[in-house]
Design goal:
This protein is an alpha/beta fold and 354 residues long. 34% of the residues lie in helices and 19% in strands. The two termini are 14 Å apart.
Length: 354
């Protein structure tokens, strides 16, 4: 067996969902692989989604992510700085732990989406690394944390050997080998999609709207949104959204394949999380994205969506009074290939060249 260490960001479920797509396909195409998933926040989701004797899990804090101000979708810069400062304490000790882990498990390849933690110890051991993301946490924190304080993350990312840049990326030239990819996502079963459509909209007379604010919304009261009173609409919400109406369907807590609900929708309303956006675009579902001007990652994704006419953008202040009207819905006439297969090919080239 050849062992890959796969690091998944501890922020939300989007990084985990796209990592699941890659891990599943890697195990399908190469029976010699064993993958150790390194993460903490989404560990239960990953375990439910990945069932194989060739996968093991290692609980470790991989990065910081964002923190939001209470009852908003805006970042809490003070809290982000505090958590970042705590995370980089004893950074050298963290690196030593990963160094020992790589030696103990005889790691042949490191993949990271997009934790900075594994790059330095991997470089010391001459293990190839692949960052797969539309951003780095260094660029995400610029403007939130000072350049001097970000030096640790900057130096860590400079030790990447490969960077697979995803759609909308606007990254620095980190000095590593780069490959550009468009969108990719988990596989969609059309039979499952049709079952969902029949369940939610049996008369085929409603507009199905997927409402995705993500798994880390912070006390936002959405019960009184005029959106729910939109004419001839039914809504899909994630299990963490506590709202009950006849026209609202909550994804069961145990159901992990949310890509099927996105594919079953006529419109996706979401913040600009890359995972949700990717699954919508690949399935040709129009987007209505909530704008967060403070987040560079979001702005890069939003620009890509606008440039390619894949959806509309709305401010939160406008959205709280928004009602959907079908006549205003944009259709998507452009097809984007799921580039998962291309990513897997490149990963195996790097691994086999080892």
């Amino acid at each position: 067996m050849r062992t890959i260490a796969y690091y998944v960001s501890d922020y939300g479920y989007g990084h985990a969902a796209r990592s699941i797509a890659i891990i599943r396909r890697l195990l399908e195409v190469d029976m010699s692989l064993h993958i150790i998933v390194c993460t903490s926040f989404a560990i239960s989701f990953l375990k439910q989604s990945l069932s194989s004797e060739r996968i093991s899990f290692r609980i470790i804090n991989t990065d910081v992510g964002y923190y939001l101000n209470e009852k908003t979708i805006r970042p809490n810069n003070k809290k982000i700085y505090e958590e970042y400062t705590f995370f980089i304490q004893e950074w050298s000790k963290r690196i030593d732990i990963e160094y020992s882990f790589f030696l103990q498990k005889n790691i042949k390849l490191v993949i990271s989406d997009i934790s900075p933690l594994p790059f330095e110890p991997a470089m010391k051991l001459d293990i190839p690394t692949v960052a797969i993301s539309n951003f780095t946490w260094y660029t995400a924190y610029k403007g939130i944390i000072s350049e001097d304080d970000l030096n640790i993350f900057m130096n860590a990312y400079r030790m990447m050997t490969n960077f697979f840049l995803l759609a909308g990326s606007n990254e620095y030239n980190w000095g590593c080998r780069k490959k550009k990819f468009s969108f990719f996502s988990r596989k969609v079963d059309i039979n499952e999609v049709n079952k969902i459509k029949e369940l939610i909209n049996p008369m085929h007379d409603k507009t199905i709207i997927y409402f995705g604010l993500g798994m880390k919304i912070n006390g936002i009261d959405i019960n009184s949104l005029p959106l729910w009173d939109s004419k001839d609409c039914v809504f899909i919400v994630s299990s963490n959204v506590c709202i009950q109406r006849e026209n609202i369907f909550s994804i069961p807590d145990h159901y992990t394949e949310s890509q099927h609900f996105i594919a079953a929708s006529d419109l996706v309303i979401s913040k600009a999380g890359w995972g949700t956006v990717s699954e919508a675009v690949i399935n040709q579902i129009p987007l209505l994205l909530l704008n967060r001007k403070e987040l560079t990652e979001d702005q890069n994704t939003i620009k890509y969506i606008k440039d390619n006419n894949l959806g509309e953008i709305i401010e939160w202040e406008e959205f709280i009074n928004f009602q959907f009207e079908k006549k205003n819905m944009q259709s998507i006439n452009r097809t984007f290939e799921n580039e998962l297969g291309k990513i897997i090919e490149e990963l195996l080239i790097i691994l086999n060249d080892r």
